[in-house]
Amino acid sequence: MSNCNNDCGSCSENCNDRTQPQSFLEEPNKNSNIKKVIGIVSGKGGVGKSLVTSLLAANMQKQGYLSAILDGDITGPSIPKAFGIKDKAYGNDSGMFPATSSTGVKLFSTNMLLQNESDPVVWRGPVIAGMIKQFWQEVQWGDVDYMFVDMPPGTGDVPLTVFQSLPVDGIIIVTSPQELVSMIVEKVVNMANMMQIPVLGIVENMSYFICDSCNKEHHIFGDSHLDEIAERFNVDCIARLPMDPSIAHQVDKGLIEDLDIPQIQPIVEMLKKVESLHATNTEDTAKTINEVIAIPYDKGQVFQHFGKTKEFKIYTVVDNEITNQRIISAGSAGHHELVHVLLEYDVTTLLCGGMGNGAKDANEAAGITVYTGFSGSCEQAIANYIAGNVQLSSNATCNHHDHDHHHDHDHQCSGNCSNH
Ligand SMILES: Nc1ncnc2c1ncn2[C@@H]1O[C@H](COP(=O)(O)OP(=O)(O)OP(=O)(O)O)[C@@H](O)[C@H]1O
């Protein structure tokens, strides 16, 4: 392609040299700093997706994590009611503001835009998907550790568009025992695989009822087959929530934050361990970069094996601007010689894919700071580094003598091969 800039993620051309899928991710509002995005999905409405979304946000907030809910259930928004929120949306030139619950959970929902809560929302799919994107782009979310997206029910076009537009780090599937669980789970798992998003687990809501008189579990909708299904699709069944009239009662009163549902805790613990696929390095965003940066280079891409690279691309960056760039030969010696080559060009920083401990120590002994986990085009890698849009890892990573290393996500990986 004559005008190729090697940034496949932002290119829509149907090209044989494509190295990564086109990215449709939308930028959040400039006043948002959102660390992790978790999508809550279900096969159909009414199974308790909004309840699980709200309980998770409330519980993560109680544990000290700044939590938010983007209510993507545009035509049936029920989240504000559960939190007792009646606020209407307001904003300024930079965008709208989310409402804040009594414990500090931020949320935004179509209800905040309607004159009357009972006004019907009769929009078609593309308008609904556009609305969710606007909640992401135009709401000033501020600092958020965990954003929970109450997804539109189903696995059709609208949730798919949302998954393409928002940097979702994982999906939680909510089912109820009477749903066609197997088919639903299969569809969601297939959708998640298409989008390369991990399925964090399945929650079975209304799983059983505990009788006040005999204190026994009653499986009103019959025995659950979720364990078999979870095993078949290689997903964890992370929680079973009881059917409990006090839940519905507290939700109706807008007091969901007062509910104590111990069965939700395994999900809370699991969420604490979720790795962000799209983390933004906020510390380094503020940093002004004045560095000479080398990247192992092969036909525009970050060459994944430092010790065997034939070329480096060297960028001189002054006040975050690239003032000079060139491709140099690496010679034919091992990694100790490569360090000397880099020093000849006054390199201060090395961005690469994987690197063994020996090479890393040799570079660092020479005063070169090494960051691993980069893949894709060099142009994108340097742009992401300067913008701070990468989770920087300085760990030594793979032993490339033992296996090939493929980074096929369109994000910078943490450099930890056990994740792949
Ligand atoms: N485990 C439960 N025990 C008692 N009531 C529940 C339980 N789960 C959900 N409910 C109630 O069932 C109703 C539907 O739940 P919810 O709104 O969370 O479902 P949903 O899947 O988000 O549906 P929709 O997509 O239509 O919004 C709510 O009134 C909620 O309070």
TrEMBL record:
Residues 401-420 are annotated as: Disordered. Keywords: ATP-binding, Hydrolase, Iron, Iron-sulfur, Metal-binding, Nucleotide-binding. SUPFAM superfamilies: Nitrogenase accessory factor-like, P-loop containing nucleoside triphosphate hydrolases. The keyword Membrane does not apply. Residues 401-412 have a biased composition (Basic and acidic residues). Signal peptide: none annotated. It holds the Pfam family ParA. The keyword Transit peptide does not apply. Residues 299-386 form the Dinitrogenase iron-molybdenum cofactor biosynthesis domain. One of its GO terms (molecular function) is ATP-dependent FeS chaperone activity. ATP binds at residues 43-50. GO terms for biological process: iron-sulfur cluster assembly. Binds and transfers iron-sulfur (Fe-S) clusters to target apoproteins. Can hydrolyze ATP. Homodimer. Belongs to the Mrp/NBP35 ATP-binding proteins family. This is Iron-sulfur cluster carrier protein. It comes from Breznakia blatticola.
